[in-house]
């Protein structure tokens, strides 16, 4: 089955990597590894390759920052096989100070969806209590929720249950998976700095 064809996923970031980080995304039962990311350390500009497994022989998607600083950066998502840009994910810098928010853009940079942290009150509590309160995000296309991303309660290992089952196929799953990876990588860095 196409790894982008699943409705539910389990995303897990490696707890401690001295040089770089790893994100693994499994099927919902955690039986089958569907995506693997090995993030290089000390990179000024994010350049992430998403592979089909940890052998890193089959690249699927590239996620590349447009600029060196990642605060409010835009990340282009490209299909490796076709070389075509699928779209982008852009962090909303000022809104994300209080409550994390991202825009999902089509290939011509038109906004098609938003990723939002669940509530302002919970977001503020998380800023002060850090890893004690799991994060919860939703992806919206207009007013319609198309995905749910819930962090498990584990202060040491950032893990998300991801559910795209409410999406009727409108959101390109490569963009959705790209957004999940960026939440693990970028928001994970923010949590480590708190």
What does this protein structure show overall?
The protein is 19% helix and 39% strand. The longest helix has 21 residues, at 173-193. It has one domain (7-193): Tubby Protein, Chain A (Alpha-Beta Barrel), CATH 3.20.90. A hairpin with a 2-residue loop joins strand 10 (136-141) and strand 11. The chain is α+β, with helices and mostly antiparallel strands and 194 residues long. A 12-stranded antiparallel β-barrel has the order 1-2-3-4-5-6-7-8-9-10-11-12. It has 3 helices and 12 strands; from the N terminus they run βββββββαββαβββα.
Write a brief structural summary.
The chain is of the alpha+beta class and 194 residues long. The protein has helices spanning 93-98, 120-129, 173-193; strands spanning 8-13, 21-27, 33-39, 47-51, 59-65, 74-79, 85-91, 101-105, 111-117, 136-141, 144-151, 159-163. Strand 5 and strand 6 (74-79) form a beta hairpin.
